[in-house]
Structures are given as C-alpha cells and as structure tokens.
Amino acid sequence: MKTIYLAGGCFWGTQKFFDQFAGVLETEVGYANGPSANPSYQDVCARSGHAETVRIVYNENVVSLTQRLDWYFLTIDPTAYHRQGMDMGVQYRTGIYYTDAADLPEIEERLKFEQAKYKAKLQVEVQPLENFYPAEEYHQKYLKKNPGGYCHIPPRLMQMEK
After folding, report:
1. Range of 36's domain?
2. Is-catalytic flag, 10?
C-alpha cells in the first residue's frame, strides 16, 4: 500500500472522483500543509493557509502513481492560482504532497509531461507532506451523502471506471 495526498480545489469532488477506481483502498478529506494544528473548516475558510486535500491510500500493484496523477490532472486546471471552478482562495490551491521521497522523481516526470501542454506555468505545489488533519465528519464522502452538491469536476469524469 502507498499513500499520496492530492489537493485539487474542493475536496468533495476529488474524493468522489478517486473513490471510483480499482486499487483505491481508502480516501479521507482533510486539511494539509498549513501553519497550525487541527484547523476547523471555518479556520480554513478564513485563510488559515491549509489546502483542502484528499488522502488516498492505494495498491500500487493495481495502478501506478503515474496513472493516479494522470487522472488527477483530468480534474484540475493546473494553471489556475488558488482556485478551481467557482472556488477561490488559498484553501483551493492544487498540490501533490508526498510522504515517500522515492515518489518525487515520478511526480516530477509527470509534471514535466503536463507542463509541455501549457504555455502558462503550472501552479501545482509539489512538497513533502508537512501535516494533514482530517476534516469534520460531514465533509467525508460529502457528494455521496449529498448527490446534488457543487463540484467543479465534470459529471462524466465521475463515471470513468464504469
């Protein structure tokens, strides 16, 4: 099992998107790489500096990290600074946060490949995970509980595995 942390704007859609794929063993939404411990959603919305992030535990023998990153880039505008869809603010920044330094070359190679598609510089942070605090329970699997909730990810992408 491996773990990667992806910030892709609002974490509701990112979680639902990754939950559809074989090899994903667990996802959890939370707040990452901010300066304070245990922020609340209200803190994050008040610019605490944390990113809305999804912790993804996956079986690397089923699907590689590169494939997961390929899927991630389908769901974001990697040139947008601190926004995705209608969501704006530092908490909606995009980022790839890793816990295993051995993953960094694969991440950097995927970013190089993605950058070649754009004239504008990519705005995706790539950093070691500094911290991650699980979000409140009502945020976990939010779009499963609230199917009509807002999401910047197109509905057709939520059906890729079928």
Report:
1. 2-157
2. yes
